[in-house]
Amino acid sequence: MAGVHAVHAHWEGLAQAKGCPGACWDRTTEGWQVIWRHKTIQVCVLVVFPLCLYVANLGTDVALALQYWSGRQAEWFAWTLGLTLGPLLIVHTWSCGFICLTARSHDPDRSSFAKTVQESPCLYRCLSSVPVVSIFVHYAVFSRLLWSGGDVTGLEVERNLPIIHLLDAVTAAISQLCLQIKIWVYTDERVSVLKVVSMVISLMATVKAVVTYLYYKNYLHRRPLTRGLVGRLVFMTFWKVLEVSVRVTTMGLFASAFTPWIALRIGLHWAAMTVAYFAIDRKLKGFVGLCAWGLAMVVDTFSMTFSPDHRRTFWLNSALTLLGNVTMVTVWYTQKTGDDWYDVPALVGIVVGSVVSAVFGFVGMVLSGRIESPVTFCCAKGESGTETAARRQNSPAPDSGNSVALNTV
Predict the structure, then answer these.
(1) What are the extents of the domains in the chain?
(2) Separation of alpha carbons 22 and 30, rounded Å
(3) For residues 67 and 226, what is the distance between their CA atoms, to the nearest angstrom?
């Protein structure tokens, strides 16, 4: 109770304090740090919220499949249920395999997470082999680590938990979004409340998974809480909401009229990016590298997450995504029959949204320091040759970045 009263007293002092915006921000960050030290807050943010979103996404998809079954729509029932159960097996395999490998680790420098897994009851490791339950076991171990005050900045927490949700978001949430948009346009049915809720939760799960992964991948969690960091996270979230919304709407509309061709369109995008990345990144070798990048490019087909590791793959993926969106929505608009009210708004919205998303992607690369801003570039053109050479010598090497194989394996 003393800690709670201290937090209340701190926030009351903030409310009564007067000063410049910078001082107010400093007091706000100090207040947040006081709150964040409470283990209950950490468990709610790092465990309860991700699990609730995961369960909500899974539950609404299953409920939607049952709704199709009760309405005697066997085809849509099969597709919805298949795109729910299939990703479960993928996520389960990753989570179960990770828990098993961590439990068998004998490295003297193993992380706090690995030690917590090995010290956990054997029941945890047994339950990790049960589908759906395995991810809960993962978070049960994570909760024990939080309550014991252990280090939560290890590789397992920074990489594997975000990747598990990223896999679930791409294989389940995004595929469900595309499917439900296709069903709505193809059947011209009245959209139920359950479908709207399911689609909103799928979008939230996708954006949360991508932003969280980028947050840890770029080591933003190790930086102090500043206005610049908060602004960057807000920008990143808005960009991913726009990017994913435009992408899934485009694919859903195109699939409603040209279902057999959507797989070819996605496959060509995936193949082009896979070949390009293997030609650029020397670290990706062998079967493991192929599997790692193949999985990563499934993600990047819908949302640019790994391709910004290199400037050339970033530009290629940006061009393929922009041209793909514009081409698919244009073909859908010109070839579809009927004159629905949403035809022109969809065409204009997707074209504009795709262009704005591409611009946001460029801004994101500038913010991360991987692309030089136009202002800096123009200023550098006016410098002397010696100054320009010195700047280039001190700048990061081109196409620098962590290998996808290192990030995912």
Answers:
(1) 35-222, 224-409
(2) 12
(3) 46
